[in-house]
Amino acid sequence: MSGAKRTAPRKRAARSQRLVRASAQLPREALRFLGVAHRWRRRTPPVGARPGELVVRRDAPATQLHWMVYGTGSVEEGDTRDPAEVAARLGDPQRVVWVDIHGFGDPAVLEQVGQHFDIHPLALADVVNVPQRPKAELYGDRLLIIMQMARCSETGEIEVEQVSLILGPGWVVTVQEHPGDVFDPVRTRIRAGSGRIRQMGADFLVYALLDAVIDGYFPVLETIGGVIDRLEEEVMELPTRATLARIHATRRTLQHIHRLQWRQRDAVAAIMRDEAYPFSVEVRPYLRDAHDHAFQILDAIESFRDMSVGLMDVYLSSASHRMNEVMKTLTVVASIFIPLTFLAGVYGMNFDHMPELHWRWGYAALWGVMIGVAVGLVTWFRRRGWIERRETQGAAKDDPQPR
């Protein structure tokens, strides 16, 4: 592909972002994601590579491991870069081990994690070679679940990132590329011992993490809802080309989130229906609750998409109405000046023998005729309803006072 063809999409994207942000009256936290195309470039192994090969960016963050080991009466946690230190804590049936991994910068560490926890190479490749579609797959007694996590960052940007969960006997491994996630409420519950999470097994921890990922879409939708409300006000007051660009960007964002959430709902439904997945009878009702939350998010996204389509229709109607008003004004002005131009043209001809040419009051009479014609046309247009009267008298003249 030539350099000109490669730079053309970038120029169009930059122009779209400038339109989106031009004279924007939207909340600052809502402008970050508008105008940004949600197209991920998937990292795949080269042609002919061995199955399970890990593809890591050169500038990927360093791999960090945070572990938590908890049971009914105690909780331990810490940070390490040695997977063997965490693997040594496995084997206690009364305790659950949760390993949270951030960063793909050290493929050797990730491979050691796969060896110590007996994770299939293909599953590990799906974890690292992002992005993958949301799904749930069994590898022996190991369950791989891939989800797409959405959250609003501190800078107001809506971030979508893959998070992978691997469930084994008595342990859970979560992997994502960058620090920062939606799992802080789960960590707080584990440390405080609130709820049933410390009394349940690793499968309940996986449910809690799935539920946190799904519920993380609610704040994102609240932000988008605020954007749509402001766009509605902007469309009704003074729509511009920037308004149209923002509407398109909002629709594109909603379409992207809808596609992700639809697949995540299907993944949770597959886990809920298939008895082969390692979830106990006590945990499966909770999975139904997570599935119901996914449905609620999809319903909200559908409502916002309908509202964005309605905004587009209102924008087009408003633009058409403004054009009609402009054309009507120009037509009225042209209609008034047509007879005036005719009179000025007749008496602007250079003939010696013309009626009233040498009349002393001819100039004033011509101005009087022209003004009379203009006033008469304006009055007739107003009576026909072609010129709207300004409502400067308020509602008092429209509604007579009761006697």
Q: Any idea what the radius of gyration is? A: 34 Å
Which strand order do you get reading across the main beta sheet?
2-1-3-7-6-5-4
Strand/helix succession: HEEHEHHEEEEHHHHHHH
Number of strands: 7
Major sheet summary line: 7 strands, mixed
CATH architectural grouping of the largest domain: 2-Layer Sandwich
Overall shape: it is: rod-shaped
Structural class: alpha+beta
Q: Superfamily at the CATH H level of the largest domain?
A: CorA soluble domain-like
Helix count from the secondary structure assignment: 11
Helical proportion, percent range: 40-55%
State the name of the first-level CATH class of the largest domain: Alpha Beta
What portion of the residues fall into strands of 2 or more residues? 5-15%
Please, what is the oligomeric state?
single chain
Ranges where pLDDT stays below 50 over 5 or more residues in a row are 15-32, 35-40, 391-403
Determine the N-to-C terminus distance: 81 Å
